[in-house]
Amino acid sequence: MRFYWLKISILIFVIFNSVQLCAQDISIGGSWELTIDESDMQSGMISDLNSTYESPADQVYATITHPDYGWFGTWYWRVDVSRDNSQWHNLLHLDVRRSSGGFGFGSISGGTSYQEISTATQSFFTGVRNRLWIGFQYRLRGVSVSVPAGTYVATVTYTVVEL
């Protein structure tokens, strides 16, 4: 009898970044922890694991504000995303998408299709004005019995850049 256990933890960290060195801010709430075991085998103990897993929509949320502009001032921003690779297996792929637009007087565009989070910083979505409770959803791909049982941690970094 073979027992398979794989624990995936998605830890969310935030880095503040500003091209103009202004006071915009991004705050992140939530996390995703996934435990994969023998119940995830496709056809019992001698089969492979389900290869893809999704978090609930709005599993993690972001709030983006700029106190110098208040609720009605206009400022443009972009959110970038990357992940740390130190406790990750190269067969696993982590994707993110924006699952909601949150609320506020501004607007958001992009980020609604899944994109893989790599170790290189990449653009995620853009917006204007303050936005609260922007939801994110994650997808894990590449899960297989080829990935050794163990605990894997992805540290995801979101950076807000004033445009």
Q: Per DSSP, what share of the residues sits in E-state strands of 2 or more residues? A: over 45%
- The global form is elongated
Overall mean confidence score, pLDDT: 81
Poorly predicted segments? 12-21
Summed up, the helix count is: 0
Number of beta-strand segments? 12
Task: Quickly give the structural class.
Answer: mainly beta
Q: Please state how the strands of the largest beta sheet are arranged side by side.
A: 3-1-12-6-10-8
Q: Which secondary structure elements does this structure contain, and how are they paired or packed?
A:
Elements: E1 6-16, E2 25-29, E3 32-36, E4 52-54, E5 60-65, E6 76-87, E7 93-98, E8 107-109, E9 115-116, E10 122-128, E11 131-141, E12 150-162
Parallel strand pairs: 1-12
Antiparallel strand pairs: 1-3, 2-5, 4-11, 5-11, 6-10, 6-12, 7-9, 7-11, 8-10
Describe the structure.
- The structure is a single chain.
- By secondary structure, the protein is an all-beta fold.
- 0% of the residues lie in helices and 52% in strands.
- It has one domain.
- A six-stranded mixed β-sheet has the order 3-1-12-6-10-8, with no helix packed on it. Strands 2, 4, 5, 7, 9 and 11 form a six-stranded antiparallel β-sheet that branches.
- About 6% of the residues have low confidence.
